[in-house]
Amino acid sequence: MDNSTLLVGLDIGTTSIKVVVADAGRQGLQVYGAVTSPTKGMRHGKIVDIDLVAESVKSAIQQASEKTNSRIFRVVTALPVSMLQLESATGLVNISDQGREVTDENVTQVMRAAIKAAKKKDRQAVAFFPSRFLIDGEKDVDDPRTMIARSLLVQGLVMTAPAAEVHNINTVLKHAGIQNNFFVPAPMAVSSVALDEAERTFGAILLDLGGGSTTATVIRDNQIKYATVDLKGAADITHDISVVLSTTMSDAEALKRDYGYAEPELASENEKFAVKAVGKDQNNLVSEKYLSEIINARLQQILRRVGRGLYNHDALSLPAGVIITGGSALLAGIDELVAADYDVKAKIYQPAQIGLRNPVYSVAYGIVNYVNELSDIGYLANTVIYDNGAFASNEKPAGAANSQKIAKRVARNTENDTELAYNKTKHDGAVDTQTRHEKKTDNNENKNKGLAAFFRKFFD
Length: 460
Description:
It is found in: Cell membrane. Helix content is 32%, strand content 27%.
C-alpha cells in the first residue's frame, strides 16, 4: 500500500482509543479501516499516567496498521472541547510601499503576528480560523494570495489549550512511536460528518455521550456557539451497575451492552438473566427493566445537568434538534429518552461506511474528513502553529529539510473556510460565545479542492 497518501485520525478517549485510517488520493477520501482499543491511564478525559496511555495508543496504532496493511508514522489527533478556549486575534504586516503580489510567506507572516498577539500565559495555540483578510485596510477577501497589496491584515480566532495538557498528549504520542501532524478540535471534526449543511446553518446540538464525560456542543451558522461538559459518562453507568448488582466492572459492562435500555419503559419485567454476584455461590436473577432503571437514573442526572446550560442559552429551540454520538448512543432508546427529556427532535449519528457503523468512531472519522476538506489557508495556519510540522501525508519524518516537500499544495484557490465562534471555558465547564462574524458564502467552488489534487501534484 502507498502510505504517503494516508490520513490517520486518532481519538484518545477515557475508556477507548479510536483510530481511523483513510486514503486521500485521486479517488477521493476512502476509509481503509478502523480500530477501537481499551485505554489505560486516563480519567475523565485527562491523562493521569503517560506510560499507560502511550502503551494503549501504541497497541491501537499497531492493530490499525495490521488491519489496513499499512505503516503509520503520523496521525492527526482530536482535542476534547473541555480543553479549549478561543481568543480573537488580529495581525498586520507591510508587503511593499509600491505594492506587490501577496505570497504564501506573506500570509504565514500575518497569521503568525495574529497568533502571537493572542498568546496567553500557560496556553498554547492549537488552531487558527481566519475570518477575513484586508488588503490595504480596505479590500475584504477570503484568500489574498497573488493579489497586489501594500499591507495585509488578518482577523480571526485562535483556539488554545493548556500547554501542560498539550505537552502530555505529545509525550504520549512520542512514547508510542508516532508523530502528531496537528490537533483538530473534536467538535469541528464531528460536525463535519454528523451535521449536514442545513443543520450547521440553522442550528443543532451535538451530544457526545463518551466513556469518561458527556459533551453538548451547539452549532449554528457554521460556528460553535456554546458547549458544556459534564464529567460523567458511560464508565459511570457501568460503575453504577457494578455497585448495585454487586458484580465486576467487566460483567457490568457486558450486562449494559447486552440487556440494557436507556428508557426503562422499553425493557421487559419478565425477561430476566443471571448475574454473577461477588461473594455469592449462586447467581442473582435480574430483569431487563431493573437493569434499565439503574442505567436511566444516571442518564437522567447527566441530561439534567447538561440540559440546564442548553436551556439557558436557548439551544433547545434550534430546528435541527439533538444529534447523538459516542459509545452510549448504542443504548437502545437513548434517542427517545433525549427527545422526551428535552422536548426536541433527536437522532443517533454513526458513520455510514462499512466497518465504521458505530457512533464511537464519529470523532476519528470526522478528523480524516475534516483534514481532507481543509483549505490551503487552513494548512498555512497549521504550518505557523506547528512550525512547518503540519504534514499532509503519512510519509516517515525525515527532518525539517523535507517539510515543504510534503506540505499541502500551495496553489491559489477560492475556497472559503467555515468560521468558528467560541467563548472562553467557564469554571463550571461551560463554554459560550457572543462573538459574531459575517457568514461566508462559496461563490467559486474550486475544482481542485481537497488533498487529492495535492497528492496528484507531488506523488504522481
